[in-house]
Amino acid sequence: xxxxxxxxxxxxLPPELEPLRSIxxxxxxxxxxxxxxxxxxxxxEQWEYVRDPAGMLAIExxxxxxxxxxxxxxTALAAQVHADLVRSLDSPRWFQDxxxxxxxxxxYFSPEFGVAPGLPQYSGGLGVLAGDHLKAADALGLPLVGVxxxxxxxxxIQEVDDxxxxxxxxxxxxxxxxxxxxxxxxQVTVDIAGVxxxxxxxKANVGRIALYLLDTDNDHNDAEHRLITDRLYGGGxxxxxxxxxxxxxxxxxALDALGITPQVFHINEGHAGFLAxxxxxxAMVGAGxxxxxxxxxxxxxGVFTTHTPVPAGIDRFPAxxxxxxxxGWCREVGLPMDQLMAxxxxxxxxxxxxxxxxxxxxVMSLRLSGATNAVSQLHGRVSREMFADVWPGVPTAEVPxxxxxxxxxxxxxxxxxxxxxFERVVxxxxxxxxPEHWQALASLSNDELWAVRRALRQRLVTYVxxxxxxxELHRGLSESQVAWCDxxxxxxxxxLGFARRFATYKRAALLLGDPARLQALLCDPDRPVQLVLAGxxxxxxxxxxxxxxxxxxxxxxxxxxxxxxxxxxxxxxxxRMLVEGCDVWLNTPxxxxxxxxxxxxxxxxxxxxxxxxxxxxxxxxxDPTVGWAIASAEWQSDPVQRDAIEAVNTxxxxxxxxVPLFHDRDDNAVxxxxxxxxxxxxxxxxxxxxxxxxxxxxxGEYYEPAxxxxxxxxxxxxxxxxxxxxxxxxxxxxxPSVAVVATDRTRVADDHGVTYVLDAEVVLGDxxxxxxxxxAVHGVVDPDDELRSPTVQAMAAVGPGSLPGRVRFELEVVFxxxxxxxxxxxxxxxxxxxxxxxxxxxxxxxxxPTAQATQG
Length: 856
Ligand SMILES: *Cc1c(COP(=O)(O)O)cnc(C)c1O
Description:
binds pyridoxal-5'-phosphate; alpha/beta
């Protein structure tokens, strides 16, 4: 029979252990080795399995707690760790030294947060990244808060049966046994299709950073609406739009209720995009602005990060659902529904007969945010192409989507042993150290590095054996049938890891396409290899689940089962063990579908080496001294053929490069060249992939400019925003008559390279030269007269043109070397409060730009 209610009977904590509760209640423990030592002492095995201090304290048996309370050494350590925690919460950090008062407050909205194993509010890389964003904000002392939802059934627990079928269990989370505190007296009401829904707020502490999570499961709501926060990405589009309204609209209102007024609102993936509509509504209602004026005030403070390189991965809502949920908003702000729909309309990607049929959350977020970034350089290029149609007339390279490559919070992902090495060799502040400091790793001896690597591999093997045994027993095997698990894997052989969501594009089963070659690789008598895999497939993703089944069935084959292991229930705790212990981190996505990827970064911090397709972060970070590149066959359009070719490429790299290097030993059996590569990998990559590098980049390139522009727009009762809107109207009216009517060039001197004066005659209609910039776009042309990576330079107005109403513009350009060059001319609107012309929607190009090549 099934219980109708479940709850946790929380153990009674002896007063001597109160400091322990405070430590457990701040998720900052995850970066504090001594805090972890405390919980490890309570119960070593439990610790390794769950890594959840709050959960452990809640259900630890009473006599064990009493014993700990009587252990003076333990309570003294707890008191000390607690005192250090309290002190660290307001000690000055990087931001306190660095900031000039520009940036006062950032709110980071995300549909998921993966901070620690005991708060499973994530389903994959997006959430783990959001968690690391908060931890980096703590490390830097940034004034940032996180905003999300509290899902009562979070990330599912994965079990896999003997036929490889994934079963997903969704245990109900009990906030009382988690590192969450209820925020008293704060509740917000959000209109969900005409129903007022009340949300309460939980707070998690990540060091000094607060994470606020909204929850609709309370007595104010009917049964249906209590379920809005039931599951992470549960249900269909109706559940989804409700969750996104709660996150975006409810999140902004929760911050109001908490007395927090952020200057910068960071939308982490389109799911959080509705926050922009709520901010606009508030500006309209509060300051009596029109929609355009409110958008001009609100937009500069918005930062949008896109994470999806595939159009199919983007959140879209059908018009009917939008109408049900936003007709009230439209009435309140006085905007017709079709104009709201137009904000989420993606030109070029929807049928012409029904252009406003779907609402694209990413496109709305692009339009309503002052700045947008992708999450790696390659993903930036892909995103500029993917969203190019949102900026008609703007060349793809100038589409205003930048890139901040993701990073990982090293203290959360680095083994105790390697962290101790870094502390000694690089310095106490190794997680935030500069590239110069990381160079010190060159002095790390082979013996020490190899000893750490061996210890980490040994620990992984012990851990995997225990888990394997548990999962086999759970599948119904007897003790004698699982005895082999104690000898699965080998602590001394080359260990490859592959763990991530089992989304099909990540191709977890790539090597299984050639089982004979895989078996030969794994079971080579002289140079064997072992492979540990883990990962969950979304419960609705049947293809992903098929991949799991293939992997699990392959791992059951007697010949390879000692060398090929699938670890169930991948989560932050499993990830940590795998990235610590594996020698090589394998990654085989279909390029360029991996926006960034972060698990390979975690491996670097533990001395693992990456062997990966050049996708995501690896595309910009790989060089042959730090790891291996697997060639992708993007030219092959047949996906089956492509997989086959890339599987061969992967085997080739493993067999010819990875395995031989690992077995190239000196007289003491130490793989010296391998360790050279590990040192290079750590010293060059660590400072580039740590989350504080990422966050400093967000501060300098996104948050501070956004705060500055936002403050300017708000100043003097929004005066500049209002002026900007008036100016835009004038531009919109005048633009149809703006044109480039003639271009020419004159060769003037041959002293240094070849100098030309480019000139153009331009019609500006009612506009002043100061309203626009006339630009020469020049550079090398290819055989089709296409300008490749051209230079854009402003031309100067030099006087009236050859006919009334025309203005002449000139620019002197030195062409540096012989070759085929060309140029074209364009007019774009220009205003000091608009960072890029692309946002204004107007470009007048010289008609039919033909190449004006110049030889020598
Ligand atoms: C790091 C991490 C991810 C992201 O890994 P990718 O390499 O980006 O796929 C996903 N899930 C968990 C639990 C992680 O720790």
